[in-house]
Structure formats: structure tokens, C-alpha cells
Design goal:
76% helix, 1 helix, rod-shaped
Length: 25
């Protein structure tokens, strides 16, 4: 996790998380 422009990166991380969940379910 990098804390940078938080909202932007948080959205990216959240999107990747959701993607990972979709792929693994």
C-alpha cells in the first residue's frame, strides 16, 4: 500500500481487490 493522493490510490487498490475477489470466487 502506498499513501500518496489517498483517494486515487485507494480507489485503485479497492478496484484491484474487487477484481481479485471476482476472479477467485
Amino acid at each position: 500500500i502506498w499513501i500518496y493522493p489517498e483517494s486515487k490510490l485507494w480507489n485503485v487498490e479497492a478496484a484491484l481487490d474487487s477484481l481479485g475477489n471476482l476472479l477467485s470466487s
